Predict the 3D structure of the following.
Amino acid sequence: MRISSSYVVEKGKQPDKDGFVVQVSATDTDLTLLRSNVARRSSEIDTIPDAVAFEDSEGNAVVSVDQVQRNRVIYLAQPISGREVTYVPGSPVVGIALMIMDDMRGRYVDIFDKYDDTFSFHMFGTKGIITRDP
């Protein structure tokens, strides 16, 4: 089993300074493990591994282990830091439950209008993210 190392870095940043080393093996045929490892490096937001996409230095999509192994550097098609989702504060224990209890749909619309089309919250110790369906 051949294992190789490459740098992963956001576009416009320096691989040796701002990137991180990743290792891939031939068993990761669809780059699922690589995407998952890169998604875990996002500390400020939740990143879905399937949303992580790679490009080579010429802007071509990197979709196979062979492409990763041929390139010393692969670039994230979109920055992993992304845009943070607005957090809606609530009560320390129950979160936003008291805010939405009497009219869930209406309260969600109010929250969307006040904050943004996507927001995060907590309720009874569980973190959630809600997006308005356009």
Observations:
- The two ends are 47 Å apart (CA to CA).
